[in-house]
Amino acid sequence: MNQKKRLAIFDKLSLAIPEPKTELIYNSPFELLIAVVLSAQATDKSVNKATSVLFAIANTPQAILELGLAGLKDYIKTIGLFNTKGENIITLCQQLLKHHQGEVPKNREELEALAGVGRKTANVILNTAFGLPTIAVDTHIFRVSNRTGLAPGNTVLEVENKLNKWVPNQHKKDAHHLLILHGRYTCVARKPKCNSCIIEDLCDFKEKLNES
């Protein structure tokens, strides 16, 4: 796939999705950080259901620490891996208070030093909370990048590096959410909706499906 086609893909996606944004509900970088940590191997819907109650009671590092681990788990127990996530969130809150005055750091190294925060989560925070042109490769983006030929790769990091290299500059800030939303609702895993896909004519997927 050449750059002309990649530009056309993102031009079309940006027209179809004029306000690409996360479906996680949050009101601060800290709330987003907690929501993203909770979202690993969980749906945004399940996270939003839990955090709508949690954040009404505790939406700062200090407030969550005052809940304690057992208290926090009561709010997140409907989410997969809640025991590990709860422990990470407690440690993360301690780290934020100790090293960052309770604020979410704005650089990758400091973000990845937080408990439960890996490269993907750091990329999401940098992009969504702080508006930086980072691209977090989740299962949707990995699938869309490989299936369409946009940025094929065998590993998440390989796909991320290719996207960083090839996504046109004017689309880099929104690329993360454009690709996630396209993968979540159109280029789905089992039966991609090729017949109703806005970029079908630009896609390199050889086994395009006719059902909409």
Structure explained in plain terms:
By secondary structure, this protein is mainly α. It folds into 2 domains: 86 residues, Endonuclease Iii, domain 2, CATH 1.10.1670; 101 residues, Endonuclease III, domain 1. Helix content is 59%, strand content 0%. It has 10 helices and no strands. Helix 2 packs across helix 3, helix 2 packs antiparallel against helix 7 and helix 8 packs across helix 10. It is elongated, with a radius of gyration of 18 Å. The chain starts with a helix and ends in a 27-residue tail after the last helix.
**Helix content percent band:** 55-70%
In CATH, the architecture of the largest domain is Orthogonal Bundle
CATH fold call of the largest domain:
Endonuclease III, domain 1
Taken together, the total number of domains comes to: 2
Major beta-sheet overview: none
Rounded to the nearest angstrom, the radius of gyration is 18 Å
Q: Mean of residue pLDDT?
A: 94
